[in-house]
Specification:
385 residues, globular, 8-stranded mixed sheet, 7-stranded mixed sheet
Length: 385
Amino acid sequence: MVIPALSSTSSVRQTSSASANAAAGARGAVETADVLVVGGGRWARVLIDVLCGILAPRVPLRVCSPGNAQGMLAWARTRRAGAPLEISAALPNAPAGAVIVANAAHDHEATAEWALRAGSPTLVEKPVATTAAAAQRLLDLARAHRVTLAASHVFLFAPYVQRFAERVAASSPVEALTLRWADPLAEHRYGEVKSYDARVPVFADWLPHVVPLVGALLGRAPDRLRGVTVARGGAAVGLDLRADDVPCTIFLERNTGERRRLVEVRARSGRVLQLDFSAEPAVIRDGERASAEPMPASDAERPLARMLATFLAAAAGAALDPRLSFETAVRACRLSDEVAVGYRRELATSLGGDADKPPQDADIRYALAESGHRTMPELMRTLAT
């Protein structure tokens, strides 16, 4: 079913090459073949809205949501701008010019495999798969079929990250890095209440952000795990990582009182740099000096729009930008697999004294929802195996 837009803010611009497409993306007129978004949740809707702002009006934009097609139809009728949408509950028979996989994490592998076998350039949202083996299999499949496969690393397209990385490089050698990443309960983002997939542990959900971000700041991604701490039934996780010889302390926490996105880098010289992108504008602190980063001049200059335009340029034939590297996503999955072993052990220890707590306890509810178990004895038996 096609839902016409009430109005359109995009303008038609002819382009003759994939590189021209990338340049056009900043002006809101990306020319490409049809684009298919697979997903029916909040993030899929965010992607669709951004795509409507950067695609030329004549580019077909299709949406497939097997589990929420009617909900997406209802949402589409409320849209105030953008290109017409074709929404269905079934994957199309014909390949698409570009596919964006934004459904549930547990469905990413099967959906990406379908797209790659159809020959469609594919961008997969995080986490690209639930295991490193599955992620590597997708990468091998893309190479065998010679199809572009990209991973969503949206923060690498934020100018403030690039500028902060330049300051870190100028302060090398680095002595240590600390990152705090926290989300409040029922946070409003992009006009909707943000929620998480309870089946995906916080480290599996956010390491796909952390690994490329730390890699961009230090010039090498964290590749060794030294320790794991767990609290609040698994809602809070601490990771002791190493990027070569640089200690990286990572704190990840869900259902907190406020949103936090804070990176601190301490140089061996004693210089301390901080990047706080918990809210806009992002703030960079260099010792006692703090400076707010410039806001994007337009929606097309925002990180998500820049990332999508860059992917669509690759789908049209340009070289894949290294920031979209699927190999980086595989490394994040591999580290997540390693964390999972220590996480289960530490979760069992942290819950050991909570076995008699009522099911209504927030920590118990979180642990049970993540595991899929109904009772604590069931969960504890699983963790013991």
